[in-house]
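user: can you give me the structure for this one chain? tokens are fine.
assistant: on it. calling the predictor now.
[tool input]
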Amino acid sequence: MSIITDELIDNLNANGVVVYPTSTLPGLGCLPRKEALDNLYALKKRPASQPVSLGVADIEQANELVNVPIIAMEILQSFPQGSLTLILDAKKELDERLGGKRVAVRVLSDLRALELVNVVGPITATSANHSGVEPLYDTKLAGQELGLGDDCIVEGDCPGGAPSTILSIEKTDTDSLGFTVSIMREGVIPRIDVETWMRNYR
């Protein structure tokens, strides 16, 4: 039996937001379009100047929105699923709250989150809490804290822990690889592990 209800899908399609489990903290998800982002940012009380990332099921789904070079595919395959968020060039410019021309995507690993994005497509992957407020680990409690009803919540507990490590991958003419890889946030994958991978990749 699917945990993704018709009510949940209808809510997302009507530009609503949902709380869902991830491998770290409850995520706050909406579809990547203006009206839905308006609602998410208002609910989260997040400044519009702070973009959110997108959660996807796999590289193929990410490829609908961003250009995924070989180096990005290979670095994702070299580390545990869900441990990296990659900032990549958008295929067409998106809402600035998604990064505009440069969009952060994370291949999700939690089975419940994967079921959700396999049904509805890419959704935002920001934490389910008001900006600046300590997040909760239970999706139902996190949703209730945000004033959301049961039809907006995929129930589940989250383990917490370090967030994903964020890497920016950009085209360049000054590197023999044709791309630079910059560590924007050290998370569950230590900086030294990424640097070692890059040295070996050459």
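assistant: here you go. The beta strands are 18-20, 27-29, 54-56, 84-89, 102-107, 123-124, 126-127, 165-171, 179-185. The chain has seven helices and nine strands.
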